[in-house]
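Forwarding these from the shared drive since the link keeps breaking.
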Amino acid sequence: MVEQFEVVTRGQGLFEFTEQVRKVVSHSGVSEGLCTLFMCHTSASMTIQENADPSARKDLEHWLSRLVKEDDPLYTHTCEGSDDMPAHIKAALTATSLSIPIINGRLVLGTWQGIFCWEHRYGNHRRKVAVHIGG
């Protein structure tokens, strides 16, 4: 089973979409298998991260922004703004696909784990995620 949906983002940051994936898994009818997610963009990525304390997400965002600076004079891909090339680098350093086991018809995630779109651009976006459920 393959399905696509969109995650709406409002600037840089981590946006949880665990429930959207859970619904796809539930509707698939697969009891035992694998859920594979793919981010269909080059300036956004995905991660599985703590969803209980928002400070963990803020710390991750600040750390990655410190690691990949804007306005580096070495960048040549700058036509879409100062966040453009850094967004591509951030997506390359993080994950554009994730695989999560399905057991008893449910995603195998830890108590505090959530699935997040990691938006690396400033503007609002509608990020397309492809989901493949195999079992």
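-- next protein --
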Amino acid sequence: MKSELLTAYFQEAASWDADRVAQANRATSRAWRAAAAGWVCATACAVALAVLMPLKRVEPFVVRVDNSTGIVDVVPVYSGEAGMQQTVTRYFLSHYVSVCERFNFATAESDYEECGAFHAAQRNQAWYALWNPNNPASPLNVHKDGSTVRAQVISVSFFQRASGVTDLAQVRYLTAERSGTGADERITHWIATIQYAYTQPSHDPKVRRWNPLGFKVVELTAEPEILAPSSDQAARTG
């Protein structure tokens, strides 16, 4: 009788131990599955970030406040494709003529490089040929006596082609040449017909400093302007 009770007790104890071992195995299995799921999620997140990283970029923006109305807006970023307002184009044309039609030995090299930053390929070749020291008409030869020239823009007018394209402008300006002896300025009036375009801005920091919007002078033709005599002059000659 005692042996039967002992046998039953040991069997019950063994089943209890077996249940505890099975429970521990199940807990361990669940833990490993949870850990594996966590690693899978972490790996998926890392892959997603790596895929999305090239799409992330920082774009600076400028907030503009209207002085008269107080309206606040964000200035759009220019990418070299949108049309430019005439005010911006007028500035570039005026700046280009003022710099490229003047001459002073102190700033000649810098002016030559700055004007090149605004030139299309064809215009740049003509610019190089003009400034070539072998050219007798080169400003380097014409003004080697120390004379200087300043340019002053008078007006800028825009023209629209029959196709609707607006890429032509006429710039009226004067040049004032002063000889090296310090004599009075000799003033002449000019009309420049300029074909221009906006292209992708240069990646060269030096060029971008002068020309951040990719403005290009495609072709330029300058002619002397014949001014009508003033009423005082007409009275004197009459």
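The mean pLDDT is 81. The first strand starts at residue 62 and ends at 65.

- D.
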